[in-house]
Amino acid sequence: MHHLDSGEGLVSLYPLIKKSDYLLEHIHREACIIKYGLVAIIKVNSKSSDQMMLEYRH
Questions:
Q1: Is 46 within the bounds of a domain?
Q2: Which terminus of the chain is more exposed, N or C, with fewer CB under 10 A?
Q3: Domain span including residue 41
Q4: Could you tell me if residue 13 is inside a domain?
Q5: Is 34 part of a structural domain of the chain?
Q6: Within a domain: residue 4?
Q7: How far apart are CA 10 and CA 30, in angstroms?
Q8: What does the pLDDT look like over 1-40, one tens digit per residue?
Q9: pLDDT (0 to 100) of residue 25
Q10: Is residue 16 packed enough to be buried (19+ CB in 10 Å), middle (13-18) or exposed (0-12)?
Q11: Residue 54: how many CB atoms within 10 A of its CB?
Q12: By the 8 A CB rule, do 45 and 19 touch?
């Protein structure tokens, strides 16, 4: 898991998801982001992230 079990991310590689303002503002899209991934520049807790988020594969 890229965001770590704690949800704190890996500094500049993967944004944190724990207490993430982005996820709270886009809660209606969480399932789609997990399933399909995300290719966009997003701002998480005032920090920009342009890393592609891969879809979840099980």
A1: yes
A2: C
A3: 20-58
A4: no
A5: yes
A6: no
A7: 19
A8: 555 566 565 556 666 677 888 888 999 998 998 889 888 8
A9: 92
A10: buried
A11: 11
A12: yes
- Measured CA to CA, the distance from residue 10 to residue 14 in angstroms comes to 5
State how far the Cα of 57 lies from the Cα of 50, in Å rounded to an integer: 21
Angle among Cα 38, 36, 29 to the nearest 5 degrees reads 70
Gap between the Cα atoms of 13 and 17, Å rounded:
13
Cα–Cα distance for residue pair 22/17, rounded to 1 Å: 8
The long-range contacts involving 50-55, CB below 8 angstroms and separated by at least 24 positions, are: 51/13, 51/14, 51/15, 53/2, 53/14, 54/2
Token code pair at residue 54: 């891969």
Alpha carbons 12 and 50: distance in angstroms, whole number: 9
Count: domains in the chain: 1
